[in-house]
Amino acid sequence: SHGNKEVFSCRGILLAVQWFWDRGHKDITVFVPSWRKEQPRPDVLITDQHILRELEKKKIVVFTPSRRVGGKRVVCYDDRFIVRLAHESDGVVVSNDTYRDLQSERPEWKKFIEERLLMYSFVNDKY
C-alpha cells in the first residue's frame, strides 16, 4: 500500500520492518513472490528493488516459489506460507488481507487469524 497501488514499493517493506525492529521485534519474516526479483515491466512497476536483496541477505525477506510453464508464470499461494509460519511460531500476521478463505481451511487458523491479524496503513512514509 506504500506505493498507492500504482507501484510495488520495496521502501514500504523496509519502513514496516524498521517500525517493528525499532520496537524490539527481531524475528521478522516478510514473504515476497520470487518474481518480484525479476526485471520490472511497465505494467508491473517496482521501486527500490535493491532493498529486497538487502533484506534477503539479512534473512528477513523470504521469496516464495514461482516458475514459468508454457510462457506463463505459475505462483504458489503465498498466504498459506504467511499464516502457517505465524501460527507455528506464535507470531502475528501483518497484512490488510483478511485471509477469509484460509479461516475455513483449518479450524485452528480461524481463531488465530481473528486474534493475530494486525492491519496497517501508511501516511506518506509513516507506517
What does it look like?
The strands form four sheets. A two-stranded parallel sheet has the order 1-3. The chain has 127 residues and is an alpha/beta fold. It folds into two domains: 1-67, Rossmann fold; 77-121, no CATH class. The longest helix is centred in the first third of the chain and has 13 residues, at 10-22. The model has no long low-confidence stretch (mean pLDDT 91). It has five helices and eight strands; from the N terminus they run E-H-E-E-H-E-E-E-H-E-H-H-E. Residues 1-126 form the RNase NYN domain. This is ZC12A Endoribonuclease. Pfam families: RNase_Zc3h12a (PF11977).
The CATH class name of the largest domain reads: Alpha Beta
When the domains are counted, the total is: 2
User: Low-confidence parts lasting 5 or more residues at pLDDT below 50?
Assistant: none
Give the overall pLDDT as a whole number: 91
Rg for CA atoms: 15 Å
What share of residues are in beta strands? 15-25%
Topology (SSEs and partners):
Blueprint: E1 8-9, H1 10-22, E2 30-33, E3 46-47, H2 50-57, E4 61-64, E5 66-69, E6 72-75, H3 78-88, E7 93-94, H4 100-105, H5 107-116, E8 117-118
Parallel strand pairs: 1-3, 2-4, 7-8
Antiparallel strand pairs: 5-6
Task: Briefly say what this structure is.
The protein is α/β, with parallel strands linked by helices and 127 residues long.
